Amino acid sequence: MDDAEFDRRLANGEFLEWAWVHGHRYGTLVSEVERVLSTGESVVLEIDVQGGLSVRAVMPDAVLVFVEPPSMEELERRLRGRGTEDEKSVELRLANARTEMGHAGEYDVRIVNDDLERACGELEDVIHTYEKDGGHAQDVRDQA
């Protein structure tokens, strides 16, 4: 959506969470989350730390999963290996990652993305645990 639409929806309180990330605004509409939840399905949001903590404030039963790189050195290698970002963007992303890593302990589950297949399996296990008894965050928190 364009800036005017984003501003209008923000003023109307239509976002579950929103944030400035790397110079751009992103957000999750409450209406979209509620639409999916009303079907009995779970919602998985790929959002930054500030967004996750905002969701937790509004939806305390949300399960927060922190996916982290095996190391900052590996994260830097991955970012540079993409070849899609200029130096300033890489440095900004690394600085943001360092800050975000400081919040990992506030999440219910931490998954180290050192092996994509294993990390995806761990995420699937978290979702399965959450859904098996009708969506109770405590089930996941108890297993973490």
Structural overview:
With 144 residues, the protein is of the alpha+beta class. The protein has a domain at 63-143: P-loop containing nucleotide triphosphate hydrolases (Rossmann fold, 3-Layer(aba) Sandwich). Helix content is 53%, strand content 15%. It has helices at 3-11, 30-37, 49-58, 72-82, 87-101, 116-131, 137-143; strands spanning 15-21, 24-29, 65-68, 109-112. It is globular and about 45 Å long. The mean pLDDT is 88.
Summarize the topology:
Elements: H1 3-11, E1 15-21, E2 24-29, H2 30-37, H3 49-58, E3 65-68, H4 72-82, H5 87-101, E4 109-112, H6 116-131, H7 137-143
Parallel strand pairs: 3-4
Antiparallel strand pairs: 1-2
Helix pairs in contact: 4-5, 6-7
- Helical fraction: 40-55%
- CATH-scheme architecture of the domain at 63-143: 3-Layer(aba) Sandwich
Q: Mind telling me the CATH superfamily name of the domain at 63-143? A: P-loop containing nucleotide triphosphate hydrolases
Taking the alpha carbons of the first and last residues, their distance comes to 37 Å
Quaternary class: single chain
**What's the average pLDDT?**
88
CATH topology type of the domain at 63-143: Rossmann fold
Q: Count all strands and give the number.
A: 4
The count of helical stretches stands at 7
Low-confidence runs (pLDDT<50, min 5 residues)? none
- How much beta, percentage-wise? 5-15%
- State the order of secondary-structure elements, H for helix, E for strand: HEEHHEHHEHH
Strand order of the largest sheet: 1-2
Main sheet, how many strands, which sense, barrel?
A: 2 strands, antiparallel
CATH class division of the domain at 63-143: Alpha Beta
Q: How much is the radius of gyration in Å?
A: 17 Å
